[in-house]
Amino acid sequence: MNQNQNGSKSYLFSIVLVAVLGGLLFGYDTAVISGAEKGLQAFFSNAADFQYTDSWHGFTSASALIGCIIGSALSGFLATRLGRKRSLIIAGLLFFISALGSMDPEFLLFEYGKPTFSLLIMFNIYRVIGGMGVGLASAICPMYIGEVAPSNIRGMLVSWNQFAIIFGQLVVYFVNFFILGEHIQPLVEEMGKGLAAINPAAQWTVTTGWRYMFGSEAVPAGLFALLICFVPETPRYLVSIGQDERALGVLSKINGSSRAQQILQNIKETMTEKTERLMTYGALCIFVGIMLSVFQQAVGINAVLYYAPRIFGDMGMENPMMVTVFMGVINILFTLVAIFTVEKWGRKPLLIYGSLGMALGAFGVAITFGHAGLEMVTALSIMIYSASFMFSWGPITWVLIAEIFPNTIRGAAVAIAVAFQWIFNFIVSSTFVPMFNMHLSEGDDFGHWFTYGLYGVICLIAALFVWRLVPETKGKTLEDMSKLWKSRL
């Protein structure tokens, strides 16, 4: 009886936990390349029918991002036409196909173990397929959680999705480490000279190791695709397709029977016009969602996460990978800060404080990088920069994107916002190394201070943007968003 009146928290947390697995796969898929890319480069460098250049390797390492843009762009259409649940099942299948295909791109079509240009194209197709899964999951997982969660804990539950992303990245670092075992990565000068010229201890990495790294994703991907079949569709989507009774059943299990009736009525009141145009609530609504995504990437965080070993190595540290893992642990701890404070402090304060903390860290790197004796100050500045992102723009952007859009335009609006996120992810990731290595004169550090100085300035602009334009959504229901944006027209 108590469960019927108050709802079941265990039921809510169980379905959110399944949805959060999509976030873990998001992190896993984007980070798996970090351990596999050297073995992969050595493998294709031995191709006889084409030259595997640095440009090809850069494209191959980033090809999943193309799929991310496609998947996120399609997410609104799929979420609206097929529903949130079936869209997540599709994402799980894409992850699974990509994992197995990336592990064995020769399957049925090519000679196993023989690198060719055609095989490279096939490998990249499988990586794009995985990226499409990431793009779908990145948009629909927080949308799903936001639509099933009660308003008083919605921010906390959506924040767990960001924790899962960071945790997925950390998991794959350890998985890659254990797969590598006593084997070593090939050296750059060994690549392109044939397998016989490669250090014997590195040959297994070139022929087999990278395959196991990509294939390891099939385990969590298969589990996610299976478990998502057992969670309910979101009440908001069920109402949008006229299945009010099913929606009431889900709401009752989560919120209790009396509260469920009230929530259902609120949902129905905002679903009266099912085909509202994207700009029904004004251009500001869409602009804020897009700019939240743009700033999350433009502050430069992925330049730090993707290239941390390179940065720490350039600082002269003996074991940059160990420092990178330490930073990963700090990232997880500060993501927990967001999870347990977002409902107390609100969304806006966390974003503003995080922006200022990131600016402090970025300017610290810009000023101290490359100066003898200040290496620890530079490392500490990078830690401050990264930690500040993890309790602010990392999780809170996903919270806001999941909740600021009115019900009738949420699918399309989320798709647009998340597509911009992946576009700017690609821009930041592809411009970091050229900017970082810029020189006005031989031997100067212009690129180092310019890059982080630029990120610091963007962080300050982001703080101003949040202060002036982003609404506070703490404690508001998803149905309140319609009234909020109409009041700003």
Largest sheet: none
Which structural category fits the helices and strands? mainly alpha
Shape summary: globular
What's the average pLDDT?
86
Count the E strands.
0
Radius of gyration: 23 Å
The total of helices stands at 21
Helical residues, percent: over 70%
Explain how this protein is built:
The structure is a single chain. The protein has 489 residues and is mainly alpha-helical. Helices cover 76% and strands 0% of the residues. It is built from 21 helices and no strands. The protein starts with a helix and ends with a helix. The mean pLDDT is 86.
Give the SSE layout:
Blueprint: H1 2-6, H2 9-31, H3 33-45, H4 54-81, H5 84-103, H6 117-148, H7 154-180, H8 200-215, H9 218-227, H10 235-240, H11 244-255, H12 257-270, H13 283-298, H14 301-314, H15 320-345, H16 347-368, H17 375-390, H18 393-403, H19 410-436, H20 446-469, H21 480-487
In short:
The chain is 76% helix and 0% strand. It is built from 21 helices and no strands. Helix 7 (154-180) packs antiparallel against helix 15 (320-345).
Which features would summarize this protein structure in a list?
single chain, 489 residues, mainly alpha, 76% helix
